[in-house]
Amino acid sequence: MAETVAVRPAEGRDPGGFAYEDRPRLLEGLRAYGLIVAMWVRSTMAYRASFVMTTLGNLAATAFDFVTIVLMFTHVDALGGYTLPEIALLYGVSATAFGLADLLLGSMERLGRRVRDGTLDTLLVRPVPVLAQVAADRFALRRIGRITQGLAVLAYALLTLDIAWTPLKVAMLPLMVITGAAVFGAVFVAGAAFQFVAQDASQVQSAFTYGGATLLQYPPTIFAKDLVRGVTFVVPLAFVSWLPALYVLGRDYPLDLPQWVAFLTPVVSAGCLGLAGLVWRAGLRSYRSTGS
After folding, report:
1. How far apart are CA 186 and CA 205, in angstroms?
2. Which is nearest to 236 in space by CA: 259, 202, 270, 260?
3. Average confidence (pLDDT) over 35-44
4. How many CB atoms lie within 10 A of CB 21?
């Protein structure tokens, strides 16, 4: 009688060449995130006219924020000592950085709903990191409208401002957008982790994400010093636009901070991401199924 032999993947490896037990967790999460995002993008592009209309609607809705600022300057020459192009730089950096984070991780705010209705359990049984699944769930490509609007305002600021450009200032522009998106992304993840405990905390999360983005669109000189301290030393949103942008503008820093703090943005953003990862793991471990 012929012997039956079970067929297995060679040496327990997937088509990418990684052993299942040795595949890096980060790489596995990024791959899963990309596959889920690609699925939602294909779904979105099946109705292209709807996608175009919703994207334009998203762009128009966010544009009203800057229109409000422009209307203010029809009555004043400066706001907190800052001209319209200077505020446009703060606005453009903040809006673009937040738009990137919102595009990539904005779905995290739905976690509380999944915890309440028990659908998070379906994500836990899949051999894919839960964070990647939650972040990519219902990926909304229409959110590029916010990024487009932020880039347009940023371009206006750069064209109208008279800045003495140096190599460091030029390098600071893309750096503060990328690191700013990382800081906002960390807030999205940490806020979602909090929803493991308080399922109805999405509005609290929005206060630090959407509210933080709006806060950073205005100069720090119009806010109380205690608030500025809070967004500098507690939730370091000031490193998204205020501190690096003030370096580019050649402006004095709030709280009499030294000039070199503007270059701490990569360190701060990396620290925020690391802390958010720890908070996420703690929140996920504390999760208890709602049962049936």
Report:
1. 11
2. 270
3. 90
4. 6
Long-range contact set of residues 250-253: C-beta below 8 Å, sequence gap at least 24: 250/163, 250/164, 251/86
Q: Amino acid identity, residue 12?
A: G
Helix extents (H) in the chain: 25-45, 48-72, 84-105, 111-117, 120-124, 130-136, 144-160, 167-194, 202-216, 225-229, 242-249, 265-286
What is d(CA 19, CA 243) in angstroms, rounded to the nearest whole number? Answer: 44
* CA nearest neighbour of 197 among 96, 111, 86, 84: 111
| Contact assessment for residue 64 and residue 161, using Cβ atoms and an 8 Å cutoff | no
What pLDDT band is residue 198 in, cutting at 50, 70 and 90? Answer: confident
**Residue 172 contacts residue 249 (beta carbons within 8 Å):** no
Taking CA atoms, 281 is separated from 109, 277, 278, in Å, by 16, 6, 5
pTM, two decimals, is: 0.86
Of 112, 71, 272, 100, nearest to 194 by C-alpha is 112
For the segment 110-127, the average pLDDT, to the nearest whole number, is 84
Residue partners of 211: CB distance under 8 A and separation at least 6: none
DSSP string, 47-64: THHHHHHHHHHHHHHHHH
Q: How many CB atoms lie within 10 A of CB 56?
A: 13
Please write the tens of the pLDDT for every residue from 237-275. 999 989 999 999 998 888 888 889 999 999 999 999 999
Q: Are 112 and 202 in contact (CB under 8 A)?
A: yes
Residue whose token pair is 């294909």: 42
